[in-house]
Predict the structure.
Amino acid sequence: MKEKQIKLVYPVTQKGDVVENYFGIDVADPYRWLEDDMSSETAAWVVAQNEVTNSYLSNIPYREKIEKRLTDLMDYEKVGMPFIEGDYTYFYKNDGLQNQSVLYRQKGNAEPEVFLDPNTFSENGTVSLASIEFTKDGSKAVYLISEGGSDWRKAIVIDTETKQQLEPELIDIKFSGISWFGDKGFYYSSYDKPKGSELSAKTDQHKVYFHKLGTPQKQDQLVFGGTPEEKHRYVFGGVSDDLNYLIIQAAVSTSGNKIFIKKMGVKNAPLVAIVDNTDSDTNFLESKGDDIYLVTNLNAPNKRVVKVNVDNPAPANWVDVIPETDHVLSVSTGGGYIFASYIKDAVSMIQQYDFSGKKIRDIALPEVGSANGFYGKDDQTELYYSFSNYKTPTTIFKLNVDTGKSIAHAKSKVNFDSDKFESKQVFYKSKDGTKVPMIITYKKGLALNGDNPTILYGYGGFNVSLLPSFSSTRAAWMELGGVYAVANLRGGGEYGKKWHNAGTKLNKQNVFDDFIAAAEYLSAEKYTSAEKLAVMGGSNGGLLVGAVMTQRPDIMKVALPAVGVLDMLRYHTFTAGAGWAYDYGTAEDNKEMFEYLLGYSPVHNVKSGLDYPATLVTTGDHDDRVVPAHSFKFAAHLQAKHTGTNPTLIRIETDAGHGAGTPTSKIIEQYADIFGFTLYNMGIKSI
């Protein structure tokens, strides 16, 4: 007897008559009205969609059981890596189910005290502590808060001894670091407040300001940016640790930047270009007297560390300190050393160097996985780093920089037995023969019978590398008997700039082909089958899922696109979206680029009469990174054109953004819904 299906009646989504012409080709956009996040019609649509979705999800018989296990797995003390500021050691800690982690501090061996508790910022935990920066002596700090998950920030200046606020908060800060110049003031970045909705209107003129303590924000000095003839969408200003130099980085896209330097304390000192074009990525690392150290992929796709005299900083004068190797490099400093973190086949390899470029040692890691940290002040003799992989919960280690010996500082207290699980790295061939790595994690003794519920996760963009890491949500999925597979697709940074570029613009289809090949591999090797496979990804990974499910709906049973970039003809018209053009190109570039984008844009490739996978689109109403209109329009097209019995739903979280700062309670609810939806639509009757 066939199991009774949960009945679905979708809300009616009105169609408009908007048609836009690109290079002589008319493209209809019937749901353009959903882009207006300030309209009552859009608000009513969101309410109606959530009512249908919530009704469906609440009727999944084992959803509450999944939520309880997620709650148990999240309910343990989590401690972050310590860092030293002034006379105190600071660290973040979450007692278990606190919506936001609390910042503590400790002097010597005294009892730790609460320094900042973001759980007091709002009743429901939707105001989060985004970042904090201290003066060199640790006496003052600026912390940034995010409200409802938005990328817009407010800055609050405090005296660290009394914890008292020193002046009115600064507002309208976005995509910004904070960098103190002594205790006189600090540098920050922002855009002019856009006309219309601050959550969706275009923002593409980034600027660096200097705020002098004790003065109103309206008097802040514009340091860089703001010239109409030369737009920079991402600009950052920072002062070197020795306070001798101001460094400005300016970019028009998420890849490639100019970098400038200015001597501080020198009257009328000019801002000198180190790199005056955006053809490469170069970041300031540290200064030692007149020498500055840079990390760059200029003439080194896998990156290298160079040094140069500040009086002649052009690339022609750079000297290699850590030359490029076959593995992708990222760098941190602490204890008077440079720590080179290499990615070798999507896992970490750490080496320690002095500033002359002499290799001191390899840092031994517990097993195959990913390590993060190795940063601190120059005079520290001990640094901290974290280690984990997909089955091993995070442990924080303390490293003695002189001996290279590590000891465990804080072991995870999660109630998860990693010995019952295993991870396996495989290499499979994509459509064009390219070898792609994938890590598959599952319970030991897994039967390769093609009947295992499996989530295939991917990203494939923006030079981002997916390295193994532990999460309680993934642990819950695997405890439920699920397989979790992560494919390291082209477009990412796992094999350097060439790997990244192989998945951009007119090469973007390579990313989708890599993901399709991963799905086919999992089925061919009997880990799963099309009836038991879910594909999952967020942001650029949401685009990945949207493109693959519209190109090959036959290879999966469930599709889970989260906060996805789904309208490829208009993504660049919202907030800072134009900065993604390095990866995507835009529909305005030329006819070839327009036709290529139109050919895979998920919103434009939902076809009438097809039976699409069971789909749960997820987004947040305060997402001003990838505006929710992408997800709204995609869901509307799916509901209007899809045939068959698979549900096509959208889950719209309120007071939530792109993901950062999401309260623990909302994370638990989200994943209970996602996993319940996935298993139910795979035909799993009980867990």
Notes: The mean pLDDT is 96. The chain is about 15% helix and 35% strand. The two ends are 20 Å apart (CA to CA). Residues 325-413 form one domain.
